[in-house]
């Protein structure tokens, strides 16, 4: 039996009683990071009615780099033992390699269960105050280049609110990129959810950038960002949005070619002629 167990996104007190009781039955832990899982279990032992696993219990890493190979090693144990998959924080399978395990269980008719628990996606969206009940979760943007620009433009042109994660060293870059596309767009930035230095920031993209530039926002910590959906119909404005971006002509030409009937060569010639 494989159980996916959510862990607190910050505050250890958010662990559930059901998760604690399941931890005590597990003989094999599959962890995004074994060190983080062991650290959490020690904290739970110190603060709650929980017994740390015995020496016979095994902890194995299972992450994006080794998931496929690790699955081959432990596949037979999924039916024979009580196995838990644990992310570093939050809901397993959401933006982590746990989906490999879900798919394997489904294909091989192995029983599995997913315990309910906290996730940064819904926590941040609830805190945003945006009234629409519908949103799109996009996890992390590509880190750089035209792929990042193209992905962000697509999000900004969506009429549905978008939720994404961003690393602390790229958070100011992200708000600058949003401002370049639409400085008046309503955004919500949440930092270190459920932790001591949790903070919420809501306003126009331009006003949030000004707070960053005035050093009134400390970028350290995990970030979840909500971008309000575009009010107008999106498709007719794709090209205009790209044309105003401060990008190299070659990069801009490639992006424009994806959205129009013109070739990269045609767009490049037009851009350098301006």
Mean pLDDT comes to 91
Rg calc: 22 Å
User: Strand portion, in percent?
Assistant: 15-25%
Total individual domains: 3
Unreliable runs: none
**N- and C-termini, Cα separation:** 64 Å
Task: State the CATH class of the largest domain.
Answer: Alpha Beta
CATH fold-level assignment of the largest domain: Cobalt-precorrin-4 Transmethylase, domain 1
Helix content: 40-55%
- In CATH, the homologous superfamily of the largest domain goes by the name Tetrapyrrole methylase, N-terminal domain
Overall outline = globular
Assign the CATH architecture of the largest domain.
Answer: 3-Layer(aba) Sandwich
Strand order of the largest sheet: 3-2-4-1-5
The topology string of helices and strands comes to: EHEHEHHEHEHEHEHEEHEHHH
The beta-strand count equals: 10
Number of helices: 12
The largest sheet, given as strand count, sense and whether it forms a barrel, is: 5 strands, parallel
Structural class: alpha/beta
Domain Tetrapyrrole methylase: 1-207
Keywords: Cytoplasm, Methyltransferase, rRNA processing, S-adenosyl-L-methionine, Transferase
Function: Catalyzes the 2'-O-methylation of the ribose of cytidine 1402 (C1402) in 16S rRNA.
GO molecular function: rRNA (cytosine-2'-O-)-methyltransferase activity
